[in-house]
């Protein structure tokens, strides 16, 4: 009905109002529909003359900001549970490891359960214990092989620990236990060091068919921890014993 169907809003709107040009007179039965249409376009207030610009609705000035977007997503996706952003992004570990822990918290690491969700058929078995299907929470939290790595630190601090169901819960609980740690920054690194060592061992078994015993994986976990802790305070190099004593 409108004459110029490809017109933009700036072609049709001026501060005086809308200017639609119809190609013929309206029929009686069309008048109400056109009136409704005018009512609808009148609800778009706040129009200004000027060039079209991208306007992000999450910000009062229409400017996209990553931290505002993060907060919006954090608020809407996590349904009230606290998202452990600090434990993931403020931990002094290599950035690629932070990204990996973030994927773990999202339960999106490519363990066999997630590979199967992508349509690949597998007979899922945990590479470490061989007893159950491989999921993020099993591999990194509940597997009896993995538990041996956790126990290095839990036994050392005499903590009686019930492993939570999910990675996010582990990160929150670990932070709470950190109040007893001598050095909280170092304490915060421990879960990442465990998970990185476990993931390396899992991939060594999966892709190279090389199986290391648990002692070797414990050692590589401690070495990751010491290496990352030494980067924390760049002016002093601490030994393995010093790092373990300081957590
Ligand atoms: Zn297992």
Automatic annotation (TrEMBL):
Transmembrane segment boundaries: none
Pfam hit, one: zf-RVT
Residue ranges constituting the Reverse transcriptase zinc-binding domain according to the UniProt record: 64-150
Superkingdom field: Eukaryota
PANTHER family noted in UniProt: OS04G0516500 PROTEIN, PROTEIN, PUTATIVE-RELATED
Protein name: Reverse transcriptase zinc-binding domain-containing protein
Native organism: Solanum stoloniferum
């Amino acid at each position: 009905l409108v004459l110029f169907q490809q017109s933009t809003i700036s072609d049709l709107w001026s501060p005086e109002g809308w200017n639609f040009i119809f190609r013929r007179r309206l029929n009686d039965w069309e008048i109400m529909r056109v009136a409704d249409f005018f009512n609808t376009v009148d609800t778009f207030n706040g129009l200004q003359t000027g060039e079209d610009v991208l306007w992000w609705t999450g910000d009062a000035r229409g400017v996209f900001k990553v931290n505002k977007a993060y907060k919006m997503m954090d608020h809407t996706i996590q349904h009230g549970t606290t998202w452990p952003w600090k434990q993931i992004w403020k931990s002094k570990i290599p950035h690629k490891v932070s990204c990996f822990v973030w994927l773990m918290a999202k339960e999106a690491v490519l363990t066999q359960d997630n590979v199967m969700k992508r349509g690949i058929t597998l007979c899922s078995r945990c590479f470490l214990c061989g007893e159950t299907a491989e999921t993020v929470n099993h591999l990194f939290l509940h597997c009896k092989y993995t538990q041996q790595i956790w126990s290095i630190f839990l036994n050392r601090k005499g903590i009686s620990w019930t492993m939570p169901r999910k990675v996010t819960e582990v990160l929150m609980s670990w932070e709470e236990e950190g109040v007893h740690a001598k050095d909280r920054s170092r304490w915060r690194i421990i879960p990442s060091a465990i998970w990185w060592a476990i993931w390396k061992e899992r991939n060594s078994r999966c892709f190279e068919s090389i199986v290391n015993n648990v002692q070797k994986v414990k050692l590589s976990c401690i070495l990751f921890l010491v290496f990352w802790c030494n980067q924390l305070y760049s002016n002093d190099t601490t030994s393995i014993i010093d790092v373990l004593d300081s957590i």
